[in-house]
Amino acid sequence: ARPLSTACKANIKYVQKDKLLMEYKYEMHCHTGPVSQCGRVKPKEIMRLYREAGYSGIVLTDHYSPLTFYNHNYFAPQRCMNFYLRSYREMKQYETDDFTVLLGLELRHYATANDYLIYGVEEEWLLKQGNMMAWWEKKMSREVHKAGYLLYQAHPFRPCITRCNPDLLDGVEVYNGKTDKKSNDKAYQWAKENHKLMISGSDFHTPAHLARGGIITTSPIKNNHDLLDTLKSQEFKMIMTY
Question: What's the pTM?
């Protein structure tokens, strides 16, 4: 993926080899207030903000973590998936032909600070899982790949985080909008050395985090099939707003 020094305006038309192309911007790391306890913005407002920022869609990655489920079946989160999916379901109600909402998640196991972004997630699959916070890394990798999804370690060089065995991962979040440049640069180098897919995300929690990251494509992403194909191909630019 080619890094982008500043966030470009979405839907920029340009001529390349006599073809008129469009650009589409997608957020890859986003949290909502109702589900992620650290989130501060409601789903409908997030969609308004991102539309105004020129984005064409969001992959919602609410925290699937002990903090999220502290007051919601801490040891059996699978019993309250209606709570976990409430923001995604609300955002889907406001989805339009020119703005896509897809389901992802940011998984954290018990007794760790490591976070993992999972892309390609279908609601039906999530509803069939047990307590994903109790999975160890090998099981997480096995189950995610069995479903055909992609697994990335999020912001791997933040304090208190340990790097996962790269053999278990598909990719690395090499740019995180809430992480300092030094740590992001380390993540980029680690991903490059281990030949991993790369991704950028804003890690949106508050309006201050709006549009700090994401990807820019020349083809629209309308569903998880499009998303997975795009991520695997690395045919996109990464937004990096230092």
Answer: 0.91
For the stretch 158-185, pLDDT in tens is: 999 999 999 999 999 999 999 999 999 9
In DSSP terms, 3 is beta-bridged to 238
- Residues 59-83: tens digit of each pLDDT: 999 999 998 887 777 778 888 899 9
Nearest to 10 by CA among 240, 175, 239: 239
Task: Using alpha carbons, select from 108, 109, 91 the residue that is nearest to residue 100.
Answer: 91
Position of tokens 């340009």? 14
The answer to whether the CB of 64 falls within 8 A of the CB of 107 is yes
- 193 phi and psi, to 5 degrees? -65, -30
CA 226 to chain centre: 15
Q: Which distant-in-sequence residues (6+ apart) come within 8 Å of 5 by Cβ?
A: 240, 242
Spatial distance between the Cα atoms of 119 and 145, rounded to a whole number of angstroms: 11
> What Cα–Cα distance (Å) separates residue 65 from each residue in 28, 70, 72, 77?
18, 9, 11, 9
Residue 131 carries which DSSP code? -
- What distance in Å separates the CA atoms of residue 88 and residue 77, rounded to the nearest whole number? 17
User: To 5 degrees, how large is the angle CA 40–CA 43–CA 45?
Assistant: 80
